[in-house]
Amino acid sequence: MKVTKSEFVISAVRPDQYPVDALPEIALAGRSNVGKSSLINRMLSRKNLARTSATPGKTQQLNYYRVNDDLYLVDFPGYGYAKVSKTQRAAFGEMIEKYLLNRKELKLVLLVVDLRHPPSKDDINMYGWLQHYGLDVCVVATKADKIPKTRWPKHVKIIKEALGFQPQHSMVMFSSENGLGKDELWDIIKSYANLESESE
């Protein structure tokens, strides 16, 4: 997909702040520091639209990015970061749960994991939760450039087994460094957002 226009729209903490233009929404979930901001920047061919931070746990709202006036990428707060207080974690959890269960515009959740490491307990819980509620999921395994290609199958197997990966879901190998998986991920997003008939 050719991205000709992308912009940060709002950091929302309540449903009344969500955009009202009814565009399809693709959410990104993953632990703090897994590379969601870098993934967004690579997908949109922008360097710093999504702010990457050296401080994990910095995103504390739902960050909306509008793409080509066709859809939104919605970046969730990263989970599993110890320095975030229990009260904050509970508030994030409630905000995300309400969004996932009630947002009609949501078409797909990208569960972002690090290919180099087995999924965390939080990754496994999130995948199980999404599956329980019947939400469409694509697992995006980032940092694929950090591992020799010959070892990819082994790492993919570890991730799928740990998550209890379901065959109806997608999985994409991704690298924010070299763009591996970008076109494949856009094809999946377009399909779920019902944009496959759009001209490239």
Walkthrough of the structure:
- The protein is an alpha/beta fold.
- The chain has a single domain (6-192), classed as Rossmann fold (3-Layer(aba) Sandwich), CATH 3.40.50.
- 30% of the residues lie in helices and 22% in strands.
- The chain contains five helices and seven strands.
- The protein has helices spanning 36-43, 86-102, 121-132, 152-163, 182-192; strands at residues 6-12, 25-30, 62-67, 71-75, 106-114, 137-142, 170-173.
- Strands 1-3-4-2-5-6-7 form a seven-stranded mixed sheet, sandwiched between helices.
- A hairpin with a 3-residue loop joins β3 (62-67) and β4 (71-75).
- It is globular.
- It starts with 5 loop residues before the first strand and ends in an 8-residue tail after the last helix.
The largest pleated sheet is described as: 7 strands, mixed
Compute the number of structural domains.
Answer: 1
Topology, number of strands: 7
Number of helices: 5
Q: Going across the biggest sheet, name each strand in turn.
A: 1-3-4-2-5-6-7
CATH topology: Rossmann fold
What does the radius of gyration come to? 16 Å
Task: Give the overall average pLDDT.
Answer: 88
Supply the CATH class.
Answer: Alpha Beta
Share of helical residues: 25-40%
Q: How many angstroms separate the termini?
A: 6 Å
Question: Uncertain regions: pLDDT < 50 for 5+ in a row?
Answer: 54-58
SSE order in H/E notation? EEHEEHEHEHEH
Q: Assess the beta-strand content as a share of residues.
A: 15-25%
Helices and strands: which structural class?
alpha/beta
The assigned CATH architecture is 3-Layer(aba) Sandwich
CATH superfamily: P-loop containing nucleotide triphosphate hydrolases
